[in-house]
């Protein structure tokens, strides 16, 4: 733990607003943990939840035992088995995960109504004011973690910080079953330790670009030439400068509307076979359809993204007259859109499928 608490120093200035107390809670290896909880024979074994390696399935979640072999979510299951021959594979049961998620979210809402779920297994909480009248966010996080452990027999990691950006980083600092607190007076020392990849929106490709202009650490963004930074990352520049100073004013939004659901994969080796590319699009489309069902949503618009070798990226989109969460329908539309690209003619580095124009699924989908 980085600090013993998150108590603030008193401030006498008129209009002073004390730092917010934000928790980011992330369930540990959620799908895999639920499966091993419910089946004692799986405990302590390298476990992956996902599709069959024979049918080009992908890893939806991996236990920490599997991760020591390099197995990660979104990885092709065939590759996961090559990395870990003793890997135990379990087909996902989303109804079970959704039930566990609902119980987790209920525990979070017992502490504060300001809960912003990000997925089935993670959420932000603003506990500046909380139902328990607890002044220390660290204590709130400890109580939440213990309640989840007692009632669901699952573990969660939590990060406590003055804003979302820092809380998200903190929750991953000591996984699994971790708790990291970044008190306001410790923010600067924490930022000094972080690589440039810690910045929101900076993936491997953007990090490589930033390193070419001398930005290795998060705090290096502060002293970068503004024109050069803008040329390198475009409109992201201003946001990265803010984050490099530890500034993130976004509130926790308990009623945040889901605007889209998507799934994408970057391949270690470029795909050149049409049948394989088509099959990968099918898998991604099925993941999107399953995501819609889990969230009780349907979509009118389906999009695909194709990134060719050389990082040229194209998107294709189709909007129907009806809303759907049907697997066959979404797969068919995604594969039809794929035919409007140069996939296979040009090597494919990344594929993605997304669902947009969403509404609640009130009646059975067509």
Listing every helix as H and every strand as E from the N terminus to the C terminus, the arrangement reads: EHEEHHEHEEHEHEHHHHEHEEHE
Rg over CA atoms, rounded to whole Å, is 22 Å
Question: Which strands sit side by side, in order, in the main sheet?
Answer: 5-6-1-7-8
Described by its quaternary structure, the protein is: single chain
The total strand number stands at 12
Shape, per Cα inertia axes: globular
Describe the main β-sheet briefly: 5 strands, mixed
| SS element count, helices | 12
Report the average pLDDT across residues: 88
Question: Terminal Cα separation, in Å?
Answer: 51 Å
| Percent of residues in β-strands | 15-25%
Structural class: alpha+beta
Low-confidence stretches: 1-16
Helix content estimate: 25-40%
Summarize the structure.
By secondary structure, the protein is of the alpha+beta class.
Describe this structure in words.
- The protein has twelve helices and twelve strands.
- The strands form three sheets. Strands 5-6-1-7-8 form a five-stranded mixed beta sheet.
- 34% of the residues lie in helices and 23% in strands.
- Helix 4 (94-109) packs antiparallel against helix 5 (137-152) and helix 11 (274-295) runs antiparallel to helix 12 (327-338).
- The protein has helices at 30-38, 64-67, 77-83, 94-109, 137-152, 164-171, 187-191, 204-212, 226-233, 237-244, 274-295, 327-338, and strands spanning 22-27, 47-50, 59-62, 88-90, 115-119, 122-126, 156-161, 179-181, 260-271, 297-308, 313-324, 348-360.
- The model is unreliable at 1-16 (pLDDT under 50).
- A hairpin with a 2-residue loop joins strand 5 and strand 6.
- It has 366 residues and is of the alpha+beta class.
